[in-house]
Amino acid sequence: MKRITILFSILILASLITQAQETDSTGSKYLNSAELMLANNSRLNIGGYGEVHFNQPFTQGQKNLSTLDVHRIVMFLGYNFSPKTQFVSEIEFEYAKELWVEQAFLQHRINSYINFRAGLMLVPMGIINEYHEPTTFNGVERPVIDNRISLSTWREVGLGFSGNILPLTVKYQLYAVGGLNGYDTKGVFTGSSGLREGRQKGSKAYASSPALTGKVEFYGISNLNLGLSGYFGKSQSKLYSKLSKDDTASLARADSSTVGISMIGADARYQLKGMELRGQLYYTSFSNTEQYNAFTGTVTSNNDLGKSMLGYYAEAGYNVFRLFTGIEQELIPFIRYEFYDMHNSVDAETDKNLNYRNTIITTGLTLRLNRKAVLKTDLQFTKAGSSDDYTRVFNAGIGVMF
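RESULT FIELD:
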C-alpha cells in the first residue's frame, strides 16, 4: 500500500503545484460518447468509434507471429423523444466477427440534478470502462488492470440515477444492476482470470441477487478530475433456481457456490500546458472464497480464487508539439507503470501463486491528428512473479471517434 500512496500523492501534488502557478479555463469534466449524445439537442443522433491494431510479441530465441486485428467498430444510435426523455444504444463489432450490444438505456431528466436511467448500462468503475474510446487514452491497448482487475467493457442491465450537483461541481451515478455469474454448471471465477468470465453483458442474464454500483467525480479544481467508484454484491448462482426454501442442504450447497464482492476504485486525471497525468487504483475483496474454491474445485484440487486483488497504474505524457508554433496536431510521448496482483491475499486453504503478480511498463507515442483521430505506437514490457525477465510486445494502431 505504501507504493500506491506514493504514486497517487505524486499525481495530486503535481496537479496542485501547477494549479497554484496557473489557472486554465479548459475545465476538468469529461464526457464519453453516450454523454455527448445525451447533450445533443438533435432528434436523431449518430456517432461511433473504431480501432485497428497490430501486435508483435518478442521472445528471445523464438520467432513469433504478429497479429493484425480490426479490434472493434462501434456505432452509437440515440433518439431524443423530448428535451427530458432520451434513448442511447451502442452496438459493437469486435475482432471483425463478434456482435455485441454494449449499451441500451433510457434516460429521463427529473430535474437539473437528477436523471433516471434504466436498461443496459456501463458499470461506472474507474476511467476506462466509461471513457474507452481510442482517442481518449494513450497506448494501443487499454491499461491491463482494466482487463484483469476491473472488467472493461463491463456492462449490466439495471436502473438508477445520475446527475451533476453543480454548486459542488460533483458528478454522480448510482445503479442497482444484475450481478456477475459465479456458478452456472461450474465455477466461473479463478485466481488467474479473476471475475472477468462472470460478465453477463445483458445477454440472457440471470439474477439471484442484485448488486449496487456507483461513482462520484469531483471536477471543481481546474484541469483536475478525481473519481471514487465502487461495486458491491454477491455473485449469482443457478443453483438457486427453483430451490425450496425449506431444503436446507440444497440452500447450503447453493450458498457455497457464491462469493461476496466488494470492489473500490480511485482515479485521478490532470492536464495543463501539454502535460497529461493520470492514475488509477482498484482493490477487490471477496468473502466465502474458501467454501467457493472447495465447492467449485475438481476432485484432485481446489479452485484458487484469492481473498483480494489489487491493481494500479500511474502515467505521464507531454505534448511536445506545444513547444512549436503553428502545429495543430499533438505528439505525446508517454510512459505508464502498472502493477496488479490477483492473489493479493488468499484464504488459509489456498496457496499464493506469485505468477499472478505482474508488473507492466508501457512507453510509446500518441499522434493526435485532431481530437477525433489518432495514430498510436508503443512498446510494452511485462514481468510475471519473481522473474527478472520482461516479455516484450510492440503495438501499433489507429483510432477514430465521431
